[in-house]
Each structure stands twice: as structure tokens, then as C-alpha cells.
Amino acid sequence: MTAETATRRPWTVTLAVVLVMLGTLVAATTAAGPQGAATLVLLLVAVCFWFAVRAGRGRRGARTAVTGLTAAILVVAAPFALDDPLYGGTTLLLAALLAVAGVVLLYLPTAEAYVRARSGDSDEEFAG
Fold it and tell me: Given Cys at both, which of 81, 88, 101, 105 links 16, Cβ 3.0 to 4.6 Å?
């Protein structure tokens, strides 16, 4: 087994990155409030996309940042989404389901093994 096949990205990590990006983008579309809030949400989404790509490359710190940014985007978008009684809550729920599922996939054992292999951490360090 070569070093490249040992660090091949699992499909769950790729799916996680796509789900996080879709979820945060959907959440951002629900935050069509005042200009200042929309700018903040777009900035958060851009930063989240960048960290999601880095998390897909096996960066431990980026994975943690994606988790925090996803939560922040959902919290910031919630008041604006809930102002729309017909579609806002449903859209935010869809966004949360997509994004949270993506974040959970980033912490599965296969993703953790990928992150360890990419960062060069030994298994004894994480054994406890």
C-alpha cells in the first residue's frame, strides 16, 4: 500500500463537503433581510466554503471551523427565515438537515482516519 492510497479521501468526506456547502447556501438564501445581515451571511458562507474545502483535504482545524461557521450561519439566518411564514421555516429546516448531516459525516471514523493520515498524527496519540 502506497502513501497515496492510504490517504485517499473517503467518499463520505466528499459528500460531507457538498452537504455543508449546499446547506449553508440554502440557509443564506433564507436570510434576505436588511443589507447588513445579508452581507454578514454572505461573508460567513464564503468563509465556510473555504474551510469546507480545506476540511475535505483533511485539515483538522478547518473541520472545527466548518462546524462553528455552520452553526453561526444557521443562527444568523433563523430570524429572517422565520419571518416568512410560508416557506422560511421549511427552507431553514432543509438547510439545517443538509448542513448538520455534512458536519456529522466529517466526524465519522472513516473521516477521522483520513484526517489522521493527512496530518501525520499517530494512533497512540488519540488512544487516550
Answer: 105
- pTM for the whole thing? 0.81
34 close to 88: Cβ distance less than 8 angstroms: no
Q: State how far the Cα of 33 lies from the Cα of 57, in Å rounded to an integer.
A: 34
**Cell matching residue 2:** 502506497
Residue 102: the pLDDT is: 94
Assign 67 a pLDDT band (cuts: 50, 70, 90).
very high
d(CA 112, CA 66): 15
Q: Which residues contact 23 (CB under 8 A, 6 or more apart)?
A: 70, 95, 96, 97, 98, 99, 100, 101, 102
Residue 50, pLDDT > 80, answer: yes
Contact 107, 71 (CB under 8 A): no
